[in-house]
Design a protein that fits this description.
With 398 residues, the protein is an alpha+beta fold. It has helices at residues 3-11, 20-47, 73-80, 194-205, 209-215, 231-240, 248-253, 257-291, 293-301, 306-338, 340-347, 360-386, 390-396; strands spanning 56-60, 85-91, 94-98, 105-110, 119-122, 132-136, 138-139, 142-143, 151-159, 165-178, 189-192, 220-225, 244-247.
């Protein structure tokens, strides 16, 4: 890059620096998308896969779908007999509500090996007891912190007919509280042992626990495999046996909703940024060279060749692309870091500032693509203009 490139880029309003704003916006969008996707992936890797998800398979039950095997007690026993399976835990859902003080209604779930709750107070035992419960620190206006370690009466529904029921009371000890921002199963969830969760779900259906587990079955289940290398074989064996089975590591990496869009956006963004910079470079270079045709004609008459003029334009392109890439990368990174809080709420997992930083490859793409594509576009866009006869051009521009 010659000093003339820097001089014309700074002083001449017709230079290629006019391409900087548009390229900076494209680079910022790419960097922000990369940061958002990286933040989601980092949170999932740390909070879900870090809890043993690499050795887990999830079973799902779809009501009304005869092609998918129901997760009844006998079916779960069959799943547990597959070679390589160490444990199978079924998830049963019901509702716990305030029996004494408070107005809360908490959805209840089984605490499965796939749940890595961010405990804020107390401690979750290795095996949750049948009379123990883990609650959010606060939910629906109720602060559970003063109740930690105490046995509390909770209400639950006991169906007595097709559309009628009574209230039952269950005494549960609150052994731990978790950060309510963690919402993998939704907001305000009470986590119970498998037997207690099944008991509440059976009562709500008006059935005995064992009858319910055999007839209705669990909503889902987590299969713990002995070693990571056995996950694929176990998943295939379960699928062949009629289960809807998927490895947790595969499922959580297919980021849903906003994060899936961000992941797609950063991949499309590379193509858009490259094509945008290429097209913008061709158009801007052609316009810039045409606007300075008289200027270039005089330089050629004085002995400056076309290669030297191209080098001036290429220098302007590199400067414009470099500045746009730097501005876009900094702005996009700042936006992704600013969105850490809202994105944590959407995902239900805490995302740190470090998580939201775009990966080196994506940052490099945002930095380098504008300059590279703008330079190629400049070579293409200036070719025809610089071929014109300088004497005729100088005479035309008087």
């Amino acid at each position: 890059m010659s000093r003339w490139s820097l001089y014309t880029w700074k002083r001449d309003g017709r230079s290629l620096r006019r391409a900087v704003p548009a390229l900076a916006v494209l680079a910022a969008m790419l960097t922000m998308s990369a940061g958002v996707a990286a933040g989601a992936a980092g949170a999932v890797e740390r909070d879900v896969l870090g809890s043993g998800g690499l050795t887990q398979v999830e079973l799902s039950s779809f009501e009304g779908d005869a092609s998918v095997r129901s997760l009844t007690a006998s079916a779960l026993r069959d799943a547990g007999s597959v070679p390589g399976v160490r444990q199978v835990v079924g998830d049963y859902s019901s509702v716990l509500y305030a029996e004494e003080a408070g107005t809360y209604d908490l959805t209840s779930h089984t605490l499965t090996p796939g749940d890595d709750l961010p405990v804020s107070a107390g401690a979750i035992p290795a095996v949750l007891g049948p009379k123990e419960v883990v609650l959010p620190a606060n939910a629906q206006g109720t602060d559970f912190t003063p109740l930690l370690g105490r046995t509390v009466a909770f209400g639950y529904t006991k169906a007595s007919g097709a559309a009628s029921g009574t209230t039952g009371v269950v005494q549960l000890k609150i052994v731990a509280l978790y950060d309510p921002r963690w919402q993998a199963d939704g907001p305000g969830v009470a986590y119970l042992s498998e037997d207690t969760a099944a008991f509440l779900a059976a009562a709500r259906a008006g059935q005995g626990t064992e009858v319910f587990r055999e007839k209705e079955g669990a909503q889902s289940a987590v299969v713990v495999v002995e070693h990571q290398r056995q996950v694929a074989a176990v998943t295939k064996a379960l699928q062949d046996d009629g289960f809807s089975a998927s490895a947790v590591s595969d499922r959580v990496r297919n980021l849903p909703g906003l994060f899936g869009v961000a992941d797609l956006a950063m991949r499309v963004g590379v193509l858009v940024l490259a094509l945008g910079a290429l097209g913008l470079g061709a158009v801007r270079a052609s316009d810039s060279a045409r606007a300075r045709l008289g200027q270039f004609a005089v330089l050629r008459i004085l002995g400056t060749g076309r290669p030297e003029l191209r080098r001036i334009l290429l220098g302007e392109a590199m400067l414009s692309g470099g500045v746009a890439g730097l501005i876009g990368t900094v702005a996009g990174t700042g936006l992704s870091v600013t969105l850490v809080g809202p994105l944590s709420d959407v995902l239900g997992l805490p995302i740190t500032v470090a998580d939201a930083l775009p990966g080196p490859a994506w940052a490099a793409a945002a930095l380098l693509l504008p300059a590279a594509a703008l330079a190629v576009g400049t070579l293409l866009g200036s070719r025809e203009v610089l071929r014109q006869d300088p004497y005729l051009t100088a005479r035309a521009h008087g």
